[in-house]
Design a protein that fits this description.
The protein is α+β, with helices and mostly antiparallel strands. Among the domains are: 165 residues, no CATH class; 125 residues. Helix content is 62%, strand content 8%. The chain is built from 16 helices and 8 strands. A 5-stranded mixed beta sheet has the order 1-5-3-8-7, covered by helices on one side. A hairpin with a 2-residue loop joins strand 7 and strand 8. Helix 2 packs parallel to helix 6. The protein is flat. 33% of the residues are buried. This is DUF2254 domain-containing protein.
Length: 428
Amino acid sequence: MKFSYTPIYTYYRKIKDKIIFYPSVFSISGVLFAFLMMYLENRGISRYLIDNVPILVVNNGDTALTILSACITGLISMMVFSFSMVMVLLSQASSNYSPRLLPGLISDRNHQIILGIYLYSILYCIFILFSIQPTGDKYQIPGFSVLLGILFTVGCIYAFIYFIHNISESIQITYILDKTFLSAKYTLNKLLEHEGEVRSSFPEIEKWFEYCTDKTGYFQDFSTDYLLSFCKEKEVMMQILPVKGMFVLQGIPVFKCSKELTEDEVKDILARFHFSRAELVSENYVLAFKQITEVIVKAMSPGINDPGTALNAIDYLTKLLQLRMLKADETFISDDNINYIKVRSVKFDELLYNVMAAIRTYCKQDIIVVQKLGTMFYFLKSQEAKSEDFFKVLDREAERMLEDAEAVLDNRTDLEVLTRIAKKLNLN
């Protein structure tokens, strides 16, 4: 059986996207490596290098202290500056685009790893500094360890140059949109790969037994392998009640089962549900639609007034909707052609309505954006879909968009453009 959720793995999932996770791992590694080098110094590694390759070893105590002190001071300054740049990025993304983008930016591993490299080098240099004896002879000075501290500092300088390059890209809306799109695309493609033919043969669940959670948070995922094995072993069927990404309160039913379960069985199952205090696109593709929609709405607000960003975001939204049309509204987890688990998901009509309701409200007065949305609907109607009902949903939302735009636009040329869009979409 594949790996399933355990308390340790669940805790790891919660902390791995925190901005402090990788810096903490690197910090511990730096301290451990410093102690390892102290041990090797006591075993005579610097003595061997002085006798064979003296050019690689710093053999003066005062020089070693000065070099390491300068390295520590410079590294701390670089780390403070880098951390300040991350805060500027988060502040600008929150004020100009959408606060929902912050969890994804905070979880950027490049920024975390670079901060971790700084901490690794700083802590290594500090502990090596303590082991230097300024009045000792050349064989008592950890010369090779000092050389490694210098090399780590040089590596940090190159990491800082890369950080400046990366942060200058990360602050651009096109980079943020592309990152959000790629994350949601990966999640959707993974769902499509595991989605077989949808079979509607699933019994009514009205009289099934409900079980509630004792946790509060955003429902992110559950252990598919464990629940499937449990259902097969106990010969039961389940339905997962909350939609992924939904905020679940303590005491809310989270699943139903066709048979009554023992307290221990319920506890084991609930332990396989993953709840989080933050929302991530990698966990829930629907969040990508919310983020891109909010970027469009924020760009069209009077305070920002950036139609170009809105047009770019609509391109990404179009591609995501195309992928979503390939996914069925109902999801089943089955084995041997038997559906054991039914998973609730956001239906296509609900998803498109929530997206277009916000966009219609703030973009209906801009004919250029309305034209772009018309192109989006025209493209989507020419694509494949899991259900023919999806095309009816597209027509319905296109009609609502044109109706709202017609109500606020007075220019005759603009109204003629709306008429051409309606004819192109074959709307009455």
